[in-house]
Amino acid sequence: SKSAGRNAVRFFDPAMQAAVVARATLQRDLRHALRDGELRLFGQPVVDARAQVVGQEALLRWQHPLRGMVSPADFIPVAEQSGLILPMGQWVLRQACAQLAAWARAGGERAQWSLAVNLSPRQLRQPDFVDTVQAAWREAGADPRRLKLELTESLLLHDIEDTITKMEALAAQGIQFALDDFGTGYSSLAYLKRLPLAQLKIDRSFVRDLLEDPNDAAIARTILQLAKSLEMEVVAEGVETAAQFEALREMGCHLFQGYHFGRPAAL
Ligand code: C2E
Ligand code: CA
Ligand code: CA
Ligand code: CA
Asked: Sign (positive/negative) of CA torsion 151, 156, 157, 160?
């Protein structure tokens, strides 16, 4: 006397249900985090070839009351799916601009620092994105020439003409763009030339085995050559040792970031 309903239960996957519930919970908690001020903006130093700090990259953290400090890798994907990345990204932009204004007021070498903000492709697809960014630096009283925006190659999968128009409008305000995680994505060299990019960031995966793997060293060299001919700066990410720093410096890399110089810390 089996009912159809009971048979259907056999096709039900409890693990999948657990995942759906976990994601819904995370989404709800994240919405509250934004509302209750549980988000923090950390910064990781960016240094030049003399190992002098020239700026910071802003990295989002979630100070969860029970889970502790949650890494963006664990919540950015959920924020992107749910659309929460839009108000969250706005918060990051405003916070970053307020930080730039505070450094400028404090004077000294910090007044010269740049601050790089990571953008989700979804933010750039907003029709009012250019105005949103302009409002953020204007209202904070920040110098837009100190603001950098980091984009990934996935951005090139969407309306490229619209992307170029927006980037050019922001570049005209003095804002600089960096292409993040370079070498891991879908970049077409033809597009690369058309985007107003000031920097390429060599992905950490190529830096990690630079000294052991000749292929990774060749990739790093190629990126540096490409950047040179396109008149862009190169930032190497994930520099963890003095030997990696030295090797990249000898290849002509301009800027460096990684645990060797400093871990992300509260701004
Ligand atoms: P990303 O933009 O590639 O940021 C660099 C990541 O590498 C950071 O991870 C940083 O802590 C880590 N890192 C830096 N130096 C080293 C090193 O020497 N060794 C190793 N093993 N790791 C290093 P984090 O802070 O966990 O951020 C992960 C990703 O989350 C970021 O990758 C970025 O894609 C995203 N993200 C962070 N903040 C934001 C944000 O405000 N908005 C958006 N849309 N994404 C963000
Ligand atoms: Ca980044
Ligand atoms: Ca990166
Ligand atoms: Ca990355």
From this structure: positive
